[in-house]
Amino acid sequence: MAEQVRAIRTRQAILSAAAKVFEEHGYQAATISQILTEAGVTKGALYFHFQSKDDLAQGVLGEQDQRILVPERATKVQEIVDMVMLHAYRLQTDPMVRAGVRLTMDQLAQGLDRSGPFVRWAEVVTVTLRKAQEQGELLPHVVPEETADVIVGTFAGIQSMSQAVCDYRDLAARTSALVRHLLPSIAVSSVLASLDLAEPRGAAVYAEALKAADALELAAAG
Amino acid sequence: MAEQVRAIRTRQAILSAAAKVFEEHGYQAATISQILTEAGVTKGALYFHFQSKDDLAQGVLGEQDQRILVPERATKVQEIVDMVMLHAYRLQTDPMVRAGVRLTMDQLAQGLDRSGPFVRWAEVVTVTLRKAQEQGELLPHVVPEETADVIVGTFAGIQSMSQAVCDYRDLAARTSALVRHLLPSIAVSSVLASLDLAEPRGAAVYAEALKAADALELAAAG
Fold first, then answer.
1. Name one GO molecular function term (chains A, B) (predicted).
2. Structural domains in chain A plus CATH codes
3. What is the pLDDT of residue A134?
4. Which of A78, A101, B168, B211 is deepest in the core (most CB within 10 A)?
């Protein structure tokens, strides 16, 4: 058990180091020896967890989907809003999430398959939109797969513009503007009227999700 | 006159070379001597036109706003749709536009101010939205500056996702989905009903714009 904990910690340290090196140098220019130096682990330890630079990048890319989950909501459209707003909040506050997103958006990273995060996010949103559809929350013309792609793609751009213009300082405001612009063509009006699309929502969902995760961990331990 | 033409050609050759080198290596790793080799010009010629690597990058970034303009439309919302769709079409077909966009989206290009294209695009869209507002095309709650930022930011993400997922093959379809999702919260219904938001629009606008540019050039020469 102690060994397993140590292995998880080592893996995490390597991923953090990789995130930092990719962020500083770009995927193309980054080298495994830079990541080794940054992580302070042996070559053997690194290759035990990751086969290659590509494998390390996929590890960093994967970190943005995991860990903190949005609590279930009765209104599934609100659940999607909460996913987007929570992700925006984590982008502002969590270096690993930021590194994953930058790598996803690194159009210069040749040979690296960056489609994973887009595709995985789109799948999660599609599933939630289907539930929303079953509950009668969506306008009749909505095609869940198409709308999910629009939501994921547009958020990717909003965060990129916010980073370029002011290093994410206005990301919550831009995210709120995004959902206010998209949802009138997605949800029926009674659902629209019930949604919370305000800027502070991301921080509130984050606090709520952390609490839920802590409770879960406590229950598992006890 | 001949000298002026030569200078313009040299500048263009240097910019094309810079675009290619930035696209291959990323802004961070690219060097002026790589650009010199690629362009096949002397150091003196390069420094006559551009002071630094940053200056070269700004030149490449600037190319995406210039050159081909959307013909004026009676309906200003259609004019905005045409700008977006033309840009999508040029992204698929013009290497210089693609290089400019990749540089704009290069979140790893430290020290390079990438806000220019976002800000300039947002200004053009804001001005056109204001005209649309004066003509009664917009819903009453629309704030042109905010909506312009949403349009520019969301398109940036749609193109990025399309590139990551299938190297732009589905960009026209994604762009059409984007405007169909955004416009119902922007334009009044009578305007919505009059719009052409179909996939082939970008190619058609491009052909039209090229024809108009040729006619203008002919008139200037004659």
1. DNA-binding transcription factor activity
2. 2-62 (1.10.10.60), 76-221 (1.10.357.10)
3. 98
4. A101
Distance CA B58, CA B104 (A): 10
Q: Where are the alpha helices (DSSP H) in B66-143?
A: 76-93, 95-104, 115-134
**3-state SS class at A102:** helix
Both tokens of residue A116? 């994973």
Spatial contact of A35 and A46, defined as CB atoms under 8 Å apart: yes
Q: How many CB pairs under 8 A join A and B?
A: 146
Both tokens assigned to B219: 């008139």
With b meaning 16 or more CB within 10 Å and e meaning fewer, what string describes B56-72? bbbbbbebbbeebebee
**Residue whose token pair is 């502070």:** A200
Put simply, the chain B residues between 100 and 159 with a CB less than 8 A from any chain A CB are 101-102, 104-108, 110, 114-115, 118-119, 146-147, 149-150, 152-159
Cβ neighbours, 10 Å, residue B210: 11
pLDDT digits (tens, 9 = 90+) for B140-192: 999 999 999 999 999 999 999 998 899 899 999 999 999 999 999 999 999 99
Spell out the residues 6+ positions from residue B135 whose beta carbon is closer than 8 angstroms to its own.
Answer: B75, B76
